[in-house]
Task: inverse folding
């Protein structure tokens, strides 16, 4: 439970060691580069944008080749393969890939080229198909579409829009050119938009006939091919088939590269690492023979990095503490249990400068409250077992994923615990099954009480848990004040509030309102009641007087600020009421589960009843687990973010991003780590 | 006809119907609009599917709360269990069903709209998922309060 102390490390070294130093730092992955120079005159930075772009492009080419391979020769992956994480690769193997990088890039280019050819050929095939499509109406024509006629006769080939019968064509010509007698019209085909026809007439009358036809909407085809349509179609067909064959061959050729997947992945990651290194290189201030470098390291690693760099590479290195006005990046340090909540914290924000890391305490509350909301022993067991199996099966899972799954593993156990306390096992499944199929009802009694029978009792407990949760937040705030030596703030902003709230709670407990709500009559001895009143009054008056303490002598304003602060009591009230969602969501799980159990048992006992019950049971409870897991997750987050963090934590820190090998496919095993 | 209005079970069932119908309509609207926004995000970036799905489901809970109240009521008015209520008791049950029905309807609609906005956050800044999720969850508080009142009322009638 801590935010790691950071230090600034600055160094100056010889240029000849530049490559070695950068590579070593990237390997260590413990330093965030952040170069700040007080005086940058005399330094130059290198322009590396070109080489960086080249490396990035190489990496992209390899990625693209991998995508293409996946398209033509799919690699079988399981549904959960995304959980598997990056495989660990021996450094030797990686070095081999680095030596062969040019060959591998060549392979990548080949694959990309082949894919391009496939795309071009596919487009060509489509074009041929379009041409064949356009030819279909002319298939009945025994001469080329461009055929003009013989010596004595002329042939007019073309289309008229709309569907027109033979008689109408004759009629049209008769109307516009009544003198023509030698005429033969043939309708070749008709489709939705056009009538395709061939008109034969004498050469010398061709112009008259054509004019007549044009008046009726006749048009010659835009592209007339000088081949007989049926023959031309066969030609196109065979061309398309040949192209298809070529495409298949190309695809097979691409598929043949499937063995080079691993090489491509390695080379892609290699270029990605180099691009990253060059990005840093471009930021380095350099002189003719030296370069400078500066950044943040966790204080625990600082000394070792300093020694290694100065001993091995003759660098001048110095470590210093972070300055007051500088905001260092945040790296959290938690043990293997408490780190499971880091993801929840990260969604809200990292601790800002001067704030503590609340992960550990928050994780404990998260697991506790989550279990209380889901509160079904069987559901909890399922969640835990699934998460446990995933953790066991995929040991190389990504860090963040691992933390989240670990969190749900613990949440599942907590759910199991609360399920046993409240007697929920798939809702009331045991009672329903025993009643429906075995004739007499049995059930596991709740260890504590059944919320559905005594909802008010759970409501009171939920609010008590809420008070404890929020008191913890206040105490953490007080701790931060004390740590910073602000004792006055601690007393006024934390102590007085706790005094007032505790006093009010103690006054409320023996009252008749509380008794009627909780059906518990609690009587305190008289001195306690007196003490409660005293605490509340002291707290309230204290807040009234002290909240505006920074406006020293302006008493009017000071009292007004105090009164406003006291009004904050209403937000405490609503915060406490907010914990009633623990009851609501807990009831929701149980009631929906029993709805499904009841639905399943509606068909009575017997074999058919049992089959229907099993089907309804599986579908219904899967749905219920899903919807309530979501609900529990969202609302537990809300209780942490709003009610708990609202008391002491703002967040807004920047996450630590060390300079390291951000690979995509593999992780290279390092021989030496610090 | 007048017997219909003096029958307690009729009033109780009317309450059950309102609890389910109103909150269900609200949730259907909320999940619907959020789903449209979510679909838009997924067309651009399918990897955000899980995140936007959670956002889409948030306004769905009101319908479930309605069902919860309805089921508890049904098991107390002689339909799934319990005994048929008198007129007064039936009217009381009717009144008890109203909070989750009405608040469920309105809050689910507003939660749906907030979810749409939150899906916009996820589309542009996926790392702010925690905060984005919080905004629709704030609306839900009032549905939970209504649920609580409905449930507590029905339990104590």
Result:
């Amino acid at each position: 439970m801590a935010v790691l102390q950071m230090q600034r490390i600055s160094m100056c070294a010889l240029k000849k060691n530049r490559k070695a130093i950068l590579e070593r730092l990237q390997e260590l992955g413990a330093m965030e580069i952040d170069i700040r120079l007080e005086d940058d005159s005399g330094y130059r930075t290198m322009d590396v944008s070109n080489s960086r772009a080249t490396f990035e492009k190489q990496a992209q080419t390899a990625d693209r080749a991998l995508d293409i391979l996946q398209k033509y020769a799919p690699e079988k992956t399981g549904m959960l393969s995304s959980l598997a994480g990056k495989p660990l690769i021996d450094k030797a193997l990686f070095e081999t890939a680095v030596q062969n990088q040019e060959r591998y890039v060549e392979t990548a280019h080949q694959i990309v080229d082949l894919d391009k050819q496939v795309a071009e050929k596919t487009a060509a095939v489509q074009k041929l198909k379009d041409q064949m499509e356009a030819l279909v109406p002319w298939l009945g024509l025994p001469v080329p579409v461009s055929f003009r006629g013989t010596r004595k006769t002329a042939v007019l080939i073309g289309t008229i829009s709309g569907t027109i019968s033979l008689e109408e064509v004759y009629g049209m010509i008769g109307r516009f050119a009544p003198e023509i007698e030698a005429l033969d019209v043939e309708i070749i085909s008709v489709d939705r938009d056009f009538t395709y026809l061939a008109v034969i007439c004498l050469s010398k009358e061709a112009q008259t006939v054509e004019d007549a036809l044009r008046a009726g909407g006749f048009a010659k085809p835009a592209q007339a091919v000088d081949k007989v349509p049926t023959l031309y179609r066969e030609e196109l067909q065979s061309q398309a088939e040949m192209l298809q064959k070529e495409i298949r061959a190309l695809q097979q050729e691409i598929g043949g590269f499937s063995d080079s997947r691993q090489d491509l992945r390695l080379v892609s990651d290699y270029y990605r690492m180099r691009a990253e290194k060059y990005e840093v290189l471009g930021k380095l201030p350099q002189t003719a023979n030296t370069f400078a470098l500066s950044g943040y390291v966790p204080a625990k690693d600082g000394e070792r990095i300093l020694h290694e760099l100065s001993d091995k590479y003759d660098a001048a290195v110095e470590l210093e503490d972070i300055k007051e006005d500088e905001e260092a990046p945040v790296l959290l340090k938690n043990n293997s249990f408490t780190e499971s909540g880091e993801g929840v914290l990260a969604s809200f924000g990292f601790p800002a400068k001067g704030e503590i890391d609340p992960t550990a305490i928050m994780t404990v509350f998260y697991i506790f409250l989550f279990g209380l909301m889901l509160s079904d022993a069987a559901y909890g067991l399922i969640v835990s077992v699934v998460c446990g199996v995933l953790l066991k099966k995929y040991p190389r899972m990504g860090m963040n994923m691992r933390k989240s799954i670990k969190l749900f593993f613990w949440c599942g156990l907590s759910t199991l615990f609360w399920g046993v306390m409240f007697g929920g096992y798939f809702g009331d499944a045991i009672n329903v099954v025993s009643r429906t199929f075995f004739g007499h009802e049995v059930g596991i009694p709740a260890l504590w009480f059944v919320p559905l029978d005594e909802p008010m009792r759970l409501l009171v407990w939920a609010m008590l848990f809420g008070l404890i949760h929020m008191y913890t937040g206040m105490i953490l705030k007080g701790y931060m004040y004390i740590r910073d030596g602000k004792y006055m703030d601690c007393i006024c902003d934390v102590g007085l509030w706790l005094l007032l709230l505790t006093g009010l709670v103690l006054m409320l407990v023996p009252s008749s309102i509380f008794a009627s709500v909780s059906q518990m009559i609690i009587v305190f001895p008289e001195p306690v009641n007196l003490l409660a009143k005293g605490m509340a009054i002291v707290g309230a008056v204290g807040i009234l007087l002290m909240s505006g303490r920074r406006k020293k002598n302006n008493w009017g304003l000071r009292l007004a600020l105090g009164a406003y602060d006291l009004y904050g009591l209403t937000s405490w009230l609503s915060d406490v009421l907010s914990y009633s969602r623990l009851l609501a969501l807990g009831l929701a799980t149980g009631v929906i589960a029993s709805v499904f159990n009841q639905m399943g048992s509606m068909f009575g006992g017997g074999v058919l009843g049992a089959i229907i019950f099993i089907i309804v049971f599986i579908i219904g409870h899967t749905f219920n687990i899903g919807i309530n897991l979501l609900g529990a997750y969202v609302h537990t987050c809300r209780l942490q973010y709003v009610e708990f963090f609202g008391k002491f934590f703002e967040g807004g820190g920047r996450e630590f991003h060390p300079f390291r090998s951000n690979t995509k496919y593999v992780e290279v095993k390092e021989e030496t780590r610090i | 006809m007048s017997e219909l209005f003096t029958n307690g079970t009729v009033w109780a069932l009317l309450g059950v119907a309102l609890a389910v119908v109103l909150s269900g309509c609200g949730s259907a609207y909320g999940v619907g609009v959020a789903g449209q926004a979510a679909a838009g995000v997924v067309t651009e970036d399918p990897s955000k599917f899980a995140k936007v799905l959670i956002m889409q489901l948030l306004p769905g809970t009101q319908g479930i709360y309605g069902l919860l109240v309805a089921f508890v009521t049904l098991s107390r008015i002689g339909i799934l269990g319990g005994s048929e209520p008198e007129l007064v008791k039936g009217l009381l049950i009717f009144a008890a069903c109203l909070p989750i029905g009405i608040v469920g309807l309105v809050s689910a609609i507003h939660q749906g709209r907030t979810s749409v906005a939150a899906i916009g956050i996820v589309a542009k800044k996926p790392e702010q998922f925690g905060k984005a999720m919080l905004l629709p969850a704030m609306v839900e508080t009032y549905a939970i309060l209504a649920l609580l009142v409905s449930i507590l009322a029905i339990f104590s009638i």
